[in-house]
Design brief:
The strands form two sheets. Strands 2, 4, 5, 6, 9, 10 and 11 form a seven-stranded mixed β-sheet that branches. Strands 1-3-8-7 form a four-stranded antiparallel β-sheet, with no helix packed on it. It is built from no helices and eleven strands. By secondary structure, the chain is mainly beta. It is globular and about 40 Å long. 30% of the residues are buried.
Length: 111
């Protein structure tokens, strides 16, 4: 049974940092792109960051130089380091590998 489990979300003040993790089980993700997406209330889900199977990195413009995606192939885990968080980063963050999605972890940035 394939499972993606996100963790690391929470409430943080503007300028703060969080590190999200996504652990994949029942699945070997070598050879697949892996990505983080987010969805704010009333808005569509959007791509935040992607790490390709070859290691190529892509970020949405609004998070460049603030967010870093990485992966640990040996442990089937991907990370999203988020620095200098802004209120507009608020939303539910999902990891996505192949056709699988996690349940999401909530990130709220507010003073």
């Amino acid at each position: 049974q394939v499972q993606l489990e996100e963790s690391g979300g929470g409430n943080v003040q503007p300028g703060g940092s969080l590190r999200l993790s996504c652990i994949a089980s029942g699945f070997t993700f070598r050879g697949f792109d892996m990505s983080w997406h987010r969805q704010a209330p009333g808005k569509e889900r959007e791509l935040v960051a992607l790490i390709g199977a070859t290691g190529v990195l892509r970020y949405r413009d609004s998070v460049k130089d603030r967010f870093t995606i990485s992966r640990d192939s040996g442990e089937n885990t991907i990370y999203l380091q988020m620095n200098n968080l802004k209120p507009e980063d608020t939303g539910t963050y999902f990891c996505h590998i192949a056709t699988y999605w996690g349940q999401g972890t909530q990130v709220t940035v507010s003073s």
